[in-house]
């Protein structure tokens, strides 16, 4: 049995499989406007890329001195996000090709995301990715979101995989840190190019500094199979 026979791949969702960050930004902007914060910028949003919705909002409460509860703010933001996600979520073409290649090769796959389970399911169904990605873990289902390893370890458990046999595909520094903490290899495709030098990405087995424009399904597959042969 080769290492490839035991391989499993765990994908982050937002910014990795799908270009959902513009939707998350707009949902956050609309939410903060409702609570008296009128000037939330894309640059401010970038600091939260890769962090779960609940942890993002907990930080908002401190940063913007909001009196509403985390649960209330999460509900409002999710409402705005789901409205946008139903019609405006785009899959990165090379990521779709990579998922399809892995499916053709019989490689077990999962999604582990900081989004709510409802949002994950909506996006996977709406984009057709649910045909191949049926094992899903939301950060809401575990004790700690990324950069803690909880979502990735739970994904491995549900796949019946050893973490050491798992490869994570991630776009954000907290996710790369979570993969490393879980004892998993990582393909890092930074969504925010300026963050490519973040120390968390230095732990990745394959770092594509150019982000999605640099990612190809073929190169990712060749890296996976090459890594597997080297053991």
From TrEMBL:
It comes from the Bacteria. One of its GO terms (molecular function) is hydrolase activity. SUPFAM superfamilies: HAD-like. Keywords: Hydrolase. It holds the Pfam family HAD_2. NCBIfam families: HAD-SF-IA-v3. This is HAD family hydrolase. It comes from Streptomyces cellulosae.
């Amino acid at each position: 049995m080769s290492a490839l026979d035991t391989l499993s791949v765990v994908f982050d969702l937002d910014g990795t499989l799908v270009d959902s960050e513009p939707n998350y930004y707009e949902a956050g902007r609309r939410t903060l406007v409702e609570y008296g914060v009128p000037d939330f910028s894309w640059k401010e949003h970038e600091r939260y890329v890769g962090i779960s919705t609940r942890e993002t909002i907990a930080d908002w409460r401190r940063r913007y001195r909001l009196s509403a509860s985390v649960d209330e703010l999460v509900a409002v933001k999710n409402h705005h996000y789901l409205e946008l996600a139903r019609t405006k979520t785009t899959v990165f073409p090379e990521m779709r090709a990579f998922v399809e290649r892995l499916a053709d090769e019989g490689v077990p796959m999962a999604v582990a995301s900081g989004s709510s389970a409802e949002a994950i399911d909506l996006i996977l169904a709406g984009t057709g990715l649910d045909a191949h990605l049926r094992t899903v873990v939301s950060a809401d289902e575990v004790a700690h979101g990324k950069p803690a390893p909880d979502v990735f370890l739970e994904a491995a458990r549900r796949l019946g995989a050893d973490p050491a046999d798992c490869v994570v595909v991630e776009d954000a520094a907290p996710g790369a840190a979570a993969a490393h903490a879980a004892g998993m290899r990582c393909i890092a495709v930074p969504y925010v190019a300026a963050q490519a030098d973040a120390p968390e990405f230095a732990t990745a087995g394959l770092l594509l500094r150019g982000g999605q424009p640099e990612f190809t399904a073929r190169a990712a597959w060749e890296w996976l199979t090459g890594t597997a042969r080297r053991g």
